[in-house]
TrEMBL record:
<dbReference type="InterPro" id="IPR011650">
    <property type="entry name" value="Peptidase_M20_dimer"/>
</dbReference>
<dbReference type="Pfam" id="PF07687">
    <property type="entry name" value="M20_dimer"/>
</dbReference>
<dbReference type="InterPro" id="IPR036264">
    <property type="entry name" value="Bact_exopeptidase_dim_dom"/>
</dbReference>
<dbReference type="InterPro" id="IPR002933">
    <property type="entry name" value="Peptidase_M20"/>
</dbReference>
<protein>
    <submittedName>
        <fullName>M20 family metallopeptidase</fullName>
    </submittedName>
</protein>
<dbReference type="InterPro" id="IPR017439">
    <property type="entry name" value="Amidohydrolase"/>
</dbReference>
<feature type="domain" description="Peptidase M20 dimerisation">
    <location>
        <begin position="190"/>
        <end position="282"/>
    </location>
</feature>
<dbReference type="Pfam" id="PF01546">
    <property type="entry name" value="Peptidase_M20"/>
</dbReference>
Length: 400
């Protein structure tokens, strides 16, 4: 297929997916669309459903006959509960749901990679097997606290994979620039819910109650200081309060206040330390006559980029675009459930510059999110070239 044909097809896929976004664990039509595009391609088998993948949505598309080495590619397919404000001709048809993190683009790039790898298989030029995971539920956990990557791992369908790679669009970085480095690059994601309990009462007689709003006001400065007073300044960490609820009337002191927030860290040491300090700080509430309940949920682990896979990604993108600028720096304090996969398999994620200069500046998870669709072809080519380099390395992927 000629370059302009790839460009046209990638945009067609991406815009269809963008128009019909689906939330985590609800990607039924998205899954059907992916399967419809790939069904019947030479050398392609498709696994889906709870029995094979661990979830009702998503698909594992395998190209090849199971011959080793086995390389994994991953794209996430879910959208976010955000009302779109791009005014694009192809904007979301579903009120309050939007692809605001580029997953429509990630899916389109992986679709293109499957087509290309299938053609290589047909020409007997694919020496190995490629497992292409169209993964649901990256953005949100279910009521069991699990994301899509965890269910896929539990299914065992990726066993035998020797390396796995993923790309992520970056709407703030110009086209032709990428972020890529080894080691820890994204954060541990932990969330907490604190219920501060006092005794309710009349707003005119605060002395007759233990005011949980007052207790909250005393605790907040401690919480906000934790990440930069309890840890070294050289240790990346963030604690954010994202929701406070309490009270229902202007003259009634409530009996409780609920605080919800998130803690982000890079190292396991920092993760454990903040958890301990959080509990320690809340103990002051008891000394003031109140009580508290703390629910702390440990979410996805920090994303670790394997140095060998990073080298392959760097070689691939430099081969495709020699003038590429590579920023060798961590990606920030955001989280990525791809990290669950990289705790099991050697892997790495690359952030691909896709700033659309014709639009106003935007960022991930914003209602104005958009990206330069020229990045789609560069991303697809990077997935393909990286895969072929890893297949060529064969048994040397794991240093054997």
């Amino acid at each position: 297929m000629e370059a302009n044909q790839w460009h046209t097809r990638l945009i067609k896929w991406r815009r269809h997916l963008h128009q019909y976004p689906e939330l985590s664990f609800q990607e039924v039509e998205t899954t059907k669309y992916i399967i419809d595009q790939l069904q019947g391609l030479p050398g392609v088998t498709i696994a889906t459903g709870v029995e094979q993948l661990g979830l009702q949505t998503g698909a594992l598309v395998t190209v090849g006959d199971g011959e080793k080495p086995i390389i994994g590619l991953r794209a996430d397919i879910d959208a976010l509960p955000i009302k779109e404000e791009t005014e694009a001709a192809y904007q979301s048809c579903r009120p309050g749901v939007m692809h605001a993190c580029g997953h429509d683009g990630h899916t389109a790039m992986l679709l293109g990679a499957v087509f290309y790898l299938s053609k290589l298989y047909e020409l007997k030029k694919l020496h190995g097997t490629v497992k292409c995971l169209f993964q649901p539920a990256e953005e949100t956990e279910d009521n069991k606290g699990n994301t899509g990557a965890q269910y896929v791992l539990q299914s065992g369908i990726l066993e035998g994979t020797e390396a796995i790679i993923a790309l992520h669009l970056d709407p703030e970085l110009p086209l032709g620039e990428v972020k890529l480095t080894s080691g820890l690059v994204m954060a541990n994601v932990d969330t907490f819910t604190i219920t501060i309990m006092g005794t309710g009462g009349h707003g005119a007689y605060p002395e007759q109650s233990v005011d949980p709003i007052w207790l909250t006001s005393l605790v907040l400065p401690y919480l906000y200081s934790m990440s930069h007073r309890q840890l070294s300044a050289l240790e990346p960490s963030v604690l954010s309060i994202c929701q406070i609820t309490g009270g229902a009337s202007s003259n009634v002191i409530p009996s409780s206040v609920v605080i919800k927030g998130t803690m982000r860290t890079y190292s396991q040491t920092a993760r454990e330390h903040l958890a301990v300090e959080l509990k320690k700080g809340l103990e002051t509430i008891r000394g003031l006559g109140g009580a508290y309940d703390l629910s702390l949920h440990l979410g996805e682990p920090a994303l670790y980029n394997d140095s060998e896979i990073v080298d392959v990604l760097e070689c691939a993108i430099k081969t495709i675009r020699p003038d590429v600028t590579i920023h060798k720096e961590p990606y920030g304090m955001g989280g990525e459930d791809f990290s669950h996969l990289t705790t099991r398999f050697k892997g790495a994620m690359l952030f691909l510059g896709a700033f659309d200069q014709t639009k106003r500046k935007t960022s991930l998870h914003q209602p104005t999110f958009c990206f330069d669709e020229c990045a789609l072809e560069l991303g697809m080519q990077t997935l393909i070239k990286s895969t072929l380099l890893l297949l060529k390395k064969g048994g040397n992927i794991n240093g054997t």
